[in-house]
Amino acid sequence: MLRYIIRRILYAIPILIGVNLITFFLFFIVNTPDDMARMQLGVKRVTPEAIERWKAERGYDRPVAWNAAEQGMAKLTNTIFFDHSVRLFAFDFGAAESDGRDIGHEISTRMWPSLAIALPVFVVGLLAYVSFALLLVFFRATALDTAGVVMCVIAMSISGMFYIIGGQYVVSKLWNLVPISGFGDGLSAWRFLVLPVVVGLAHGLGESGRWYRTIFLEEINRDYVRTARAKGLRESRVLFRHVLRNGLIPILTGVVVAIPSLFIGSLVTESFFGIPGLGSYTIEAINSQDFAVVRSMVFLGSLLYIIGLILTDISYTLADPRIRFD
Amino acid sequence: MLPFKPILLWTDMLVLLLIAAVIAFVVRARQHEHLRAPWRKVARSTGGMIAAPVLLAFLAIGFLDSLHFQRGTPPEKGQTDMRYGPDVLSVLDILVEHLRIHQERSFSAPFATHAHSRETITRPDGSQVRDFPRLRHGGSHLVDPETDRAADIGRRLLRAVGISAVLGVLVSVAVVGTYARRRGLSFDGALGAMRDGDVDLPIGPMLVSTLLLITTFTMLFALSGVYHVFGTDKVGQDVFYLTLKSIRTALVIGTATTLVMLPFAVTLGMLAGYFRGRVDDAIQYLYTTLSSIPDVLLIAAAVLMMQVYMDTHPEIFDSVTRRADFRLTFLCIILGVTSWTGLCRLLRGETLKLREQEYVLAAQAFGVSHFRILLRHILPNVFHLVIITTVLKFSGLVLAEAVLSYVGVGVDPAMNSFGTMINSARLEMAREPIVWWSLAAAFAFMLLLVLSANLFADAVRDAFDPRIRPVRRGPRVKRSGVAPARRAAEAA
Amino acid sequence: MSTPILSLSGVRTTVRGADGDLHPVDGVSFDIAAGETFALLGESGSGKSLTALSILRLLPDGVDVTAGSIHLDGTDLLALPEQAMRDVRGRRIAMIFQEPGTSLDPVMTVGDQIREVLDRHLGLRGAAADGRALELLDAVGIPDPRRRLDEFPFQLSGGMKQRVMIAGALAGEPALLVADEPTTALDVTIQAQVLELLRDLQKRLGMAMLLITHDLGIVAGMAHRVGVMYAGQLVELAPAERFFAAPDHPYSRKLFESLPTRPTAAGRLSVIRGSVPPLGQVGKGCRFADRCDDVLPGCRDADVPMKALEPGHAIRCILDSRALAPAVVSAPADAAVKVASPLLDIQDLRIHFPIRKGLFRRTVGHVRAVDGVSLAIPAGRTLALVGESGCGKTTVGKGIVRLLPLATGRIMMDGVDLAKLDGRALRDRRRDFQIIFQDPFASLDPRMRVSEILEEGMTALRPDLDAVQRMEAVDALLTSVGLATESKGRYPHEFSGGQRQRLAIARALAVEPKLIVCDEPTSALDVSVQAQILNLLRDLQERLGLAYLFISHNISVVRYLAHEVAVMYLGRIVERGPTELVLRHPAHPYTEALLSAVPALHGIDARDPIRLEGDLPSPAAPPAGCHFHPRCPRATDACKREYPGATTVGPSHLVHCLHPAH
Lengths: 326, 492, 662
What we know:
- The structure holds three protein chains of three kinds.
- In chain A, α13 runs antiparallel to α14.
- The longest helix of chain A has 36 residues, at 103-138.
- Chain A is built from 15 helices and no strands.
- Chain A has helices spanning 2-29, 33-41, 48-58, 74-77, 80-84, 103-138, 143-156, 160-174, 190-220, 223-230, 235-256, 267-273, 278-287, 291-319, 321-324.
- Chain A is mostly helical.
- Chain B has helices at 10-31, 33-44, 46-64, 91-95, 97-101, 145-183, 187-195, 203-224, 239-275, 277-292, 295-312, 320-354, 358-365, 370-407, 418-426, 437-464, 485-491; strands at 4-7, 68-73, 83-90, 119-122, 128-131.
- In chain B, the strands form two sheets. Chain B has a three-stranded antiparallel β-sheet. Chain B has a two-stranded antiparallel sheet with strand order 4-5.
- Chain B is mainly alpha-helical.
- Chain B starts with a strand and ends with a helix.
- Residues 468-492 of chain B have low confidence and may be disordered.
- In chain B, α13 (358-365) packs across α14, α14 runs antiparallel to α16 (437-464) and α15 (418-426) packs antiparallel against α16 (437-464).
- By secondary structure, chain C is α/β, with parallel strands linked by helices.
- Residues 323-338 of chain C have low confidence and may be disordered.
- Chains in contact: A-B, A-C, B-C.
């Protein structure tokens, strides 16, 4: 088991390196730092001196991967590649290009608001969607099931942004229950969190509910379910003891991959509700074309996803005895 | 000399390529029963046939909007060359030209005759008042809007209903007649069969959906000549026009992306599954790495980089249209790059299974080359997955466009799309009284498009996926054992 | 006969389809007395499984019982509310299914799955339930039951899983056990163990049993009474002894005649022409009429009722009972051992699959699937390779036609070592050897037309033929395997299993091979269709001088078709010789056990069978010394030390055993 986990972790390293190389290529090879400087400073009226100054301030004036002017290890370390790609592995993200603030510090403070929304949506959502799907499966091939599926299909055909806009309009503007957007300190933040969480839950219902229903329906057609019925078990017991347990394996392992990424939050939700999380941080960076922040977020996002993959493998071994004992 | 110059944008080429691919597939499917049979099953599904007319209407609009040209003016004396205007127009623009040119000054509500906000109006006598000014086009034919408008709208609606009734009868007669001929029935016989439910195709629901569609569009067009049926936006553009133009963007994103990704996904997936070993390791590494980067972030990074390139090389993009089009093409490509991994993984898994199938072994026993086996045995047997993925992906991509445009890494702000509509309308939510119509229009059309795409995709998946069977319970409500209907058929 | 515990009367099931209602079970009536075993015999599609599921009301969605009644001890099961029916399931009637591998919940321990029944029906919980579960596992012969209670199904072998299924079924102490093809998925030696267990339990507990099977041998060994089903109807109902002495319905008789153990004087098997009619195509009158040799004009006029011949014996036939002509059991066509120079000569063939483990997927060992096999097949002759699943016989076949990489060994054919060829040279030789597979549904590409399938080999290996010649060849091939030439434009799914296997044979013949490896070509087919294919294979051999390597686990098929037999166990050949010699006088204890495990037609246990202990060991770690010694009744200490060399025990009859039977 431990060996297995170690193997998965080691396997993640080349992938992370690959991600790093792709981002480096995108940010420094496709366009040169000169291009970026020109763009940041305004394409038309820009002097070569201004470009050089801009690059020097951010350390982009050095060679890409090999600094022949330096001695020893510095030939490698005093380069753009080392400073802006290799250092990421040590969570040294550097400073933002737009305002010069430390990205690492921003990330560590901004991830909590993101988590405060994403985690409840994830946990409550999982429970709610599984229960909903089981309900539909229990009443399968009845009018209730059909209505549920139709509702799911309609719900998943609506863009997530309409849920947010609709929620804000009805709950905040018409009913005046909670603020439209913003964020508070400590426990007072709950007033700002309720609506994003509820909207997030509503948004996920259609797709997840239908997906889980399909999984459970697939399980309910298996031979062991027939065996359980032949034992004289009640339908509810067949569902909860046999179908649920087996169906949860693909569901759990399917959602575990998303757990680490909860820190990143949702770009759209946070931006609409003015939550100062990592999602809105990313959007701000995109809008101000702050490449250092976008680069850091790409690396962080990939890292968390890869951790999610490892967790998925581990959860598989925990959830499925066929793999646990193999 | 032609009075216009055809223009082929990048996305137009993708659209044409797509149409060519579909035609090639249809020609092939006509000769091969196994390709035709699942589509017949799609034709028998109620949901799919309700969605089909709607999708067809959207496709037609998108297609008309993909035929681009520049208007020309005849050469002046002493010159031989036509002079072409700077605007790139589409056939759709010509068909709804009134919508395009009926521009107001700013916001106005649906069917409004007056602007949404007060302006300083100079009266004929020279005095100035702050009031809601009359619109230049919306309801400008009415003498006294307050008293005449309702009657005028009613009259036009009535006429529209009349026209759509005629159209509806024509369409229904054509559809039922065709069906009757195919089944060798008389027209009355076919009607009788439909009444008794003795039809193998859901003609009734399909006709209802078509008739609703015809009525809606006739009404919209009947009214849109003299009113802004969905109001106007901040710069006074007709929202109905914007909505129609957004359809092409959504369709291009939803289909061209798949076109871009299919070659990678299919080739790499089959190679990985068939050859296993190091080939498999390399391809798996590639797609695991790519799929590790969160989609939005990868797209954001790529689009930002493209933005830099476009800004620093302005000379390449000579017009706004070309610039927006290039960005749309690039968006399709980068969406393709982020979305090929799923299908690739799926095909790899399926190929791993297929390569152990005995008919593949039999071909190997004949010494048939690997390339030929991949082409003749593996590809046809994974093709249903390609089709299912293509149709399932469509709606997701349409929704993704809206989100990406909101984030700022979607289509060019100058391009009409549901995303840009939502994005600009969102800012007006705070206005009093609220400007809701842009959002409502985008919502309605997006829902209609995505919902019918989802319904159709469901029908296609049910027809193509041999594993999934619809659940059906016998008419006698009895909680008896449930095993797949398939097993019943086998045991039977 | 005592009062019946279960009584079916006119049971009819209905599938509502798009093209009207179908009746997979159509008016079935029979009784089962307490303590009696009633066998429902039929080919696939006869409706026997649906009959069983109707009794428990576990029919699949869309299938319903629409007529008739089912009484259990006087209670009408069809009228019971679902809740009361649940008290019947598992308590009064228990059921076990064909696939023990999928019929147990994979994520629930064996103990929990049994305790579930104890809790539901007997109210046993806690220690009492544990104790009872332990007793049950012990009763079904599971070694070390205490440990097994906490294990998951995937940790058990197929035979063990079926024993767990049986333990779960017995937990509710049912009055009737329904066993739906309980041993079809198991190997023959394991089948023998499970059948013996069922017989023994039934005797001990006085339970009634409804046994559903397609295997006449199993019926003979188990049943007191027999019902034969055909196309949804019972066609014969008889006491087992009477039935096996002289079946009366033409279909029953044909079933016996098409068994490979009973070839006619000409050395051919009697066949039932055609195949079972599809559900939608049963017309008026006798459903067997189209395939019956004794069909009369009146057969198709009206539905034929069951007719009692004597108490407890009835047939659905308008003909009078006639005595069955005694079956001619001829010696296989050619028992003499001819010494001919072999077409194929295999020396020390080894095929290993690497086991990868650890960080870098290093190869830490090998599964020795084939571990030093030597064989020879003369031209125009058949060598049968016999063994249970996992013994490596299929791997040998695929290795010979070079579909798998070989570790070592020589495959000499016409003076050329096939094992050394590759690339172009191998391709050119592929014309000489072809293979046909077990599963007629997986062996034809569903997306290709028949003509394309048959042409594929010709395009690849006979470039001298042009398109016209290929089309002529396709016609000739179809004719030679007994299919209409019009079928070349059709797709495989339009054919029945037997017809598909004919197509697979035609595909192999297309390149005019000298040798065909037949990998279990009939094991997926019904017995009547199997006879057609066996006859075809034999005809083709005589006409074209083909050599067959016939891979099979079915001894009676081997007896009919093979000139020589080689028996495999864990990757090695343990015994090899002329068919008659090996099958009549097996020398290796494994061969003996294998042969005695085959259910015989001669009533309940005429012989004293040799029951093997335990399961097949893993070929990744075969036991030291003789691979068979842990299960061998004759094993001595010497057997544990080294693998025995070949001993000659008769003309061309070799055995690898220190203690051969003679």
